[in-house]
Specification:
With about 280 residues, this protein is of the alpha/beta class. It has a single domain, classed as Rossmann fold (3-Layer(aba) Sandwich). The protein is about 30% helix and about 25% strand. A five-stranded mixed beta barrel has the order 5-8-7-6-9. α2 packs across α3, α3 packs across α6 and α4 packs across α7. The longest helix is centred in the last third of the chain and has 24 residues. The protein is globular. The N and C termini lie far apart (about 40 Å).
Length: about 280
């Protein structure tokens, strides 16, 4: 599937965001989603829990990139979950696909323009703590940006957010407390830790895992951080959840494959779905 490049400058502009939001509204009507959800690698099935009223293909939205990664469907799902109006991205974008971080995060701008003020972001990641296991869920408490870029680089449009957004609480404390409470009530084991984002697409070397662990990261992935930066720039509350799909322990490192990662994500997805639904119900 070919890339559709709109340009970083375009993705910075409020008129581009409004045009995309208008195109979505033309297909979904007057629906005003309260919560936006980004479904990560292998987690598109979480969309089955949503009572879907409308779908919008990314190709029909001006300025939207197109998903090029296997398991990322490439459409918006609009409906209800846990009694709340939601809009979910079934498929996200990554820098390694050839997109700028402004393009990667453009959909977050559009979700905000459509009315969503809370963002729940999920991902599949590699775990770097020996006491954790593949298939564990992790609540993201904080993140480290090692992608080497930032989606806010360039001219700032004050209509989209401040020039220097504060990131002292990137992941909303009240939402994390709620997630812990829901997990405990449902008997869902929930780790908590720091997510580090790297550019990819290759997986890391043993030395790189050692370095990432030494700077304070618990899990590693290739997404999420740019989207969270832009969500916070827009003033959205953020909850981040990861499925640890493979173990990245340098002294016991085994080759990883996409098939294994997707299989672990699929097995863990019912718990993630139950957790997200429980959180949304109580918002």
């Amino acid at each position: 599937m070919p890339l559709r490049i709109a340009g970083a400058e375009y993705a910075h502009r409020v008129d581009a965001v409004r045009a995309a939001a208008d195109a979505v509204r033309a297909q979904i009507g007057a629906s005003n989603p309260e919560v936006a959800i980004i479904l990560g690698t292998g987690l598109g099935g979480l969309g089955r829990a949503i009572q879907v009223e409308a779908t919008v293909d990314y190709g029909a939205i001006p300025g939207f990139p197109l998903s090029t990664v296997e398991s990322h469907v490439g459409r918006l799902l609009v409906g209800t979950l846990g009694g709340k109006r939601v809009i979910a991205m079934q498929g996200r974008f990554h820098k390694y696909e050839g997109y700028s971080l402004q393009q990667v995060t453009f959909p977050v701008r559009v979700l905000h323009a459509l009315g969503a003020r809370t963002l729940i972001v999920s991902n599949a990641c590699g775990g770097m703590r020996m006491e954790w296991n593949a298939g564990d869920l992790m609540l993201i408490s904080d993140h480290i940006n090692m992608i080497g870029d930032n989606p806010l680089v360039g001219a700032n449009d004050d209509a989209l957010g401040p020039r220097f957004p504060d990131m002292s609480e990137a992941y909303d404390a009240a939402l994390r407390t709620l997630a812990r409470s829901v997990a405990a009530a449902q008997g869902i084991p929930l780790r908590e830790g720091v997510y580090v984002a790297v550019a990819g697409p290759n997986l890391e070397t043993r030395a790189e895992y050692r370095m990432l662990r030494s700077i304070g990261a618990d899990v590693v992935g290739m997404s999420t951080v740019p989207e969270v930066i832009v969500a916070r720039h827009a003033g959205m509350r953020v909850l981040g959840l990861s499925i640890i799909t493979d173990l990245c322990i340098p002294d016991a490192l085994e080759p990883a494959s996409l098939d294994k990662i997707l299989a672990v994500a699929a097995n863990a997805e019912p718990q993630l779905t139950a957790l997200v639904r429980g959180v949304v119900e109580q918002l």
